[in-house]
Each structure stands twice: as C-alpha cells, then as structure tokens.
Specification:
The protein is of the alpha+beta class. The protein is 45% helix and 18% strand.
Length: 341
C-alpha cells in the first residue's frame, strides 16, 4: 500500500496544471486512474491528447520504472507496456515531485473484457500474453506484479496490453511488487526471486481468476488447495494440465507454456470434440450431411426437370410450325382453285 504522506503529497485535484521544471511541458489533470506503493497515476491532457501521468516523491522509483519502459521499447513487436513520452519534475511548495508521462491505454481490463466476450476468449488473450512475456524474459526482465487489473484489452482487433510496470524486475533480483493471490510465495510454492516461472505462476492464477472473479483466500496453501478449486469450475477443465504445470514450476519458459496451451485449443484434442467427433471439421454432423444430400438431390432433380421442359418445349414449337405451314398451304390451294373455276 502507498504510505499516507506520499499519497497526500501526490494528491492533486482535476484541473490542476502540472508543468515540468526542465522540459516545461504542461499537463492538465483530468482524474485519478489509480495508485500503488510508489505513486499515483492520473489521466491528463497535453496538446489535446490524453496521457497517463504517474507522480511520486521517490525519484529512484521513477527512474527504475522509466528504465523499464525504455527496455520495453527495445523489445521488437512487443506491446506489453505503454510507450514513454516525458520524464520531469514538478516543484510544489516545499517539495519536488518526480513524474513521468506515458501513453494512455484505453479499454476494458482483462476480466471485464471476458465478461463482455465470453470465456472462449480466455485462451486467445493468454496466448497473446505468453508471447509478449517470452520476449520480455528473453530481454532479461520479469513482469512481477502480473494480474488482471494490470492488463487492458485494446482494439479491435483485440490486443492485450500492460499498464503498470512498477513491479517489473531484472531477472535474478527480488520481486519489487506483488499481489498475494498471484504470488507463488503467498501460496508456499516458491520464492520471490525474479525468474520466468514467477510470471508463469501468475499467468496460471489469472486463468483461475477468470472463473473466480472475487478470488478466494488461502487456507492451508499449496498446490492441492488451488487445484481443488480448479476442479470445481467446468470452464477451467480444459486448462487443468496447463495450470498445474505452471503452478508446480514445470515450465521453464513462456514459450513452453504457450505450446501446451495451443495444443489444448486444437479442434480434435479438446474433451468436447473427443466426445462429439462429428463436430470437428473432418466430419459433418448427420443433420448437416442430410441437408447437404437433400440440397444435392434437389439440384439434380431441378436439372432433370429443366431438361424435360426444354425438350418438350422444342417439340411443341416444331409441331406448331408444321401446323401453321399446313394451314397456309391449304388456304393458298383453295384460293387458286376458286380462280380457275
């Protein structure tokens, strides 16, 4: 939690103008977005553009988070964190407050997005997250405080983004910030040393959180307690193996976890499709096959009918032509005969 003196120092009301001491950029505060142990984040406006501004009296903390954002910018193709826009100080009466400005990422948080779209999107979003984590880990960083509140879904197309890098830590060091439910140390399943498996544990707990939006409190701790809760929710059934492996530290990398998750989503590997093989792309449902056969039969019958109709029409036209010729011939004959007599 943020200490009261720091919160009071960084507390500003909407309409306040923050002007940087060094770069002289001006930011108008719109509203508070949230606060943590090291500062408060505000929605602000600069040159008619909405930005996120985080302020703190802890200059070291600001420097650390700015370095993380700079590191994120070097991870090609990754959209984990917001882009950094400005770093400066704001001088208040009797105190200097450090702040940095970043891209404002707009959209619902992870759980709100799934409530709108449904549980089928869980796997899609987690696959995106794991791909970004793999790149982050390869660059020597662990996200640390990974939880749904720190994940925003932008789009369309839907894209998962992280909005708080305060807990991001260099691999090998101690995790700086964490939330108990997503922390393996809280569950007695590992240390708080920053390594890829720490983040993967949190990813597994994020999946669990989708079926327990209010979460649950630890009783005895350990993996069995979490897995007992997993088994009570049908929506978590297909992820049970992946969750267990991540909680027990069996995955060495996000890529490895992502590979298992992809296999879960193969059409012929899910329990649902194993029970109903006719629902896969390889086989049609009987009703669909019957409808297809009926359609083909109707098309064939229609073709035969048209052929008979065209043939009959040609015969009728020929007969009509012969009749007309005969009538004209007879009239001509009677005309000649009457002239002679």
């Amino acid at each position: 939690m943020m200490n009261p003196s720091l919160k009071n120092l960084c507390k500003v009301i909407p309409g306040t103008i923050i002007e940087g001491k060094w770069h002289h950029n001006r930011y108008t505060i719109i509203k508070e977005l949230g606060f943590g142990a090291n500062g408060i984040v505000y929605l602000a406006r600069h040159n008619n553009i909405q930005v996120a501004l985080k302020m703190s009296d802890n200059g070291m903390s600001v420097t650390s988070e700015v370095n993380v954002l700079k590191a994120f910018a070097k991870v090609q193709g990754s959209a984990l964190g917001p882009s950094l826009m400005d770093v400066d100080d704001w001088e208040r009466p009797g105190k200097k407050v450090s702040f940095y400005v970043m891209e404002f990422i707009k959209g619902p948080d992870f759980l709100a997005f799934l409530q709108q779209k449904g549980p089928d999107w869980t796997g899609v979003m987690i696959l995106q997250l794991l791909a970004d984590l793999q790149q982050l880990h390869e660059n020597g960083w662990i996200f640390g405080d990974l939880k749904p509140e720190n994940l925003i879904v932008t789009g369309p197309p839907a894209r998962i983004r992280c909005i708080d890098v305060g807990g991001t830590t260099l691999q090998g060091r101690s995790i700086k910030e964490f939330t108990e439910f997503f922390d393996r140390g809280y569950w007695g399943l590992g240390s708080r040393k920053a390594d890829p498996r720490y983040d993967l544990f949190a990813v597994a707990m994020i999946i669990v959180n989708t079926s327990y939006p209010k979460r649950f409190t630890k009783k005895s701790g350990g993996i069995s307690e979490i897995m007992d809760m997993v088994k009570q929710k049908p929506d978590l059934g297909i992820y049970e193996k992946v969750i267990y492996n991540a909680l027990s530290g069996k995955y060495q990398s996000a890529k490895e976890m992502r590979t298992d998750l992809l296999q879960v989503h193969q059409p012929d590997s899910s329990p649902r499709n194993r029970r109903h093989p006719q629902r896969t792309g390889a086989q049609k449902q009987p009703q669909q096959q019957a409808a297809s056969n009926m359609k083909q039969a109707a098309a064939s019958a229609g073709g035969q009918t048209r052929k008979r109709y065209n043939k009959s029409k040609r015969k009728s036209s020929a007969l009509e032509t012969v009749t007309i010729i005969l009538v004209i011939s007879m009239l001509y004959f009677f005309y000649i005969y009457s002239q002679v007599t």
